[in-house]
Give the backbone structure.
Amino acid sequence: MAFGSFTSLPIVSLAALLSPTSTAEEREALRLQLTDILLHVGFFYVKDFESLLPRELLDRLFDLTKQFFALPLEHRRQIDKINSRNFRGYSEFKEEITAAANDARDQIDIGPETEYVAPFPPEQGAPLYLQLYGPNQLPSDDLLPGFRKTVLEYHAHATHVSDLIVNAIFDTLTLPNTAANEGLRDLFRSNDAGEVPYSRMKLVRYPPTGIDVDGLGSAPLHGLGVGAHRDGGILTLLAQDDTGGLQVQNWDGQWVPVKPLPYHFVVNVGQQIELLSRGLYPATTHRVLSNTSSLTRHSIPFFYNPILSSKLSPIPEADLRAELRVHTKQSVTSEVPDGDLWRDVYGQAAWGGIARSHKAVVEKHWRPYFEDPYVSAA
């Protein structure tokens, strides 16, 4: 595959990892395919995941997502994110910020369902990022029966799919059953402090352009639903309807549309994989165009991330697979700077990315305690 010049996304089947009858040759072919994709594209479709995440669950969550956004605004505001110090709940149209611009969408943000693990008010010198753990805000069963159960069920199943893919990616970087490989897997292992992998998801609505949304304005006809960005975590698993609008920027700088395929996830690696891989697996820039169709677009991105206290650094070159050592980091044309969210501790990156996107929450809950609440110290 020519470096960076892709005009469409490859398709990866998970059958070799999930079928009890798959052969060593089939698993090796998948490893080589993933290596090539991650060296040259960074985005791909995934199919044959249904033994880990049933289609019925995906359909059910999309149906409930549409029901939520059809509710009157006053009902959606019952779970307004401004009331959550750990950034969970509903954001109104044009409330979230990406690439210094307001997104033409509204959404629910969901994370791992846990108790708070850090005291509040925060202790002097304690890392802010531990405040990201805590409960979700979701519609009650009185309002939308089964919503909470379905969301948490999907979060668990999407975790299984993502874990399978991420471990396969780790196996492209390092040899299995080595200390380096186990060290990568340790990033996702829960600890005695109550930390679990900080995997987040969103339920998102992109209304059609030209239609007033809740009295808050409309999406621009020739604009962006979400500006150009590189995801800040490890892996993104995107479920989207058939409306379209997602674009990825190939490494020559050209924008490539991502055609929706039924029951296929769209997968991309984030900036922490780019960091771990010594820049060999770049996080590909992407954006969402304003929705110029007559239909509302819905999407469900799931962000698979390590525990917040994970310390991240490039894999030593000696621990990389031998065939990767001949590669060097190559120049990628992007509207987003390199290392936009590279930090020594993953929680610092997580806090920085969320805080800059949800300033109203920061100002209400965290400005009283910190001179600069947009930065989380280690």
